[in-house]
Amino acid sequence: MPSKLLIYPDEGTLGPEAAEQRSLVQDLCRLDRYLDKEMTKELSYVAIGVLVLCLATLALLSSGSNLKVRPSRESRRLRDSHSRGDR
After folding, report:
1. Does residue 8 sit in helix, strand or coil?
2. Is there a domain that residue 57 lies in?
3. pLDDT tens, position by position, 51-85
4. Do residues 3 and 18 make contact, with C-beta atoms less than 8 angstroms apart?
5. How many separate domains does the chain show?
6. What span, in angstroms and rounded, lies between the C-alpha atoms of 27 and 33?
7. Can you give the residue range of the structural domain that contains 45?
């Protein structure tokens, strides 16, 4: 009894001998675990590579900090009062 499953639209249905054929992968769960480990490892390498590349790009493009800190009026008043000896 042929299966009605179409592999590719141009190919038609599977023949009666398809049910008798052995599957290419005997232990699908084991293959899945192996591929999962491999993909996890590769994705980790890619993520680390992208992170290093971003940090290197930021370091190369950075020309230093333009951040300037001005003391507030309160801190200047306290500094001046301490320098004069006021408490």
Report:
1. coil
2. yes
3. 999 999 998 888 777 778 887 888 777 877 777 76
4. yes
5. 1
6. 10
7. 25-61
